[in-house]
Amino acid sequence: GPLSERPLMQVRLGELHTWISTCDFSPQGLLGAAQKAWNSYYAKYINVRRGGHTGISMLLAGYCLLSYSWNYQHFKRHRWRKYH
User: Fold this and answer.
1) Same structural domain, 5 and 43
2) Which domain holds residue 40?
3) DSSP state of 66
4) Does the pLDDT at position 6 exceed 70?
5) Neighbouring residues of 32: CB distance < 8 A, sequence distance ≥ 6
6) Mind telling me which residue stretches traverse the membrane in this protein (predicted)?
7) Residue pLDDT, tens place only, 36-49
8) Residue 21 sits in the same domain as residue 37
9) What CA–CA distance (Å, rounded) separates 62 from 64?
10) 57 sits in which H/E element
């Protein structure tokens, strides 16, 4: 199919610049890309017949890492003020 309809993993390195230039970076386009990514993740890991706990575990692990990274800067600043 056309280059703009290929997923990122099917784009060759030499075609990457052209593929990126065909992407829609407007708020509507970014929202559509996020929605497409969520639907793909949901179909692959959560909405399966005999799925395990992998999808939800990945989601929770991502949330834990994101939450820790948000709070890490706070901990780092707090510790620095306490000892210096």
Assistant:
1) yes
2) 1-47
3) H
4) yes
5) 24
6) 54-72
7) 989 988 888 777 77
8) yes
9) 5
10) helix 54-83
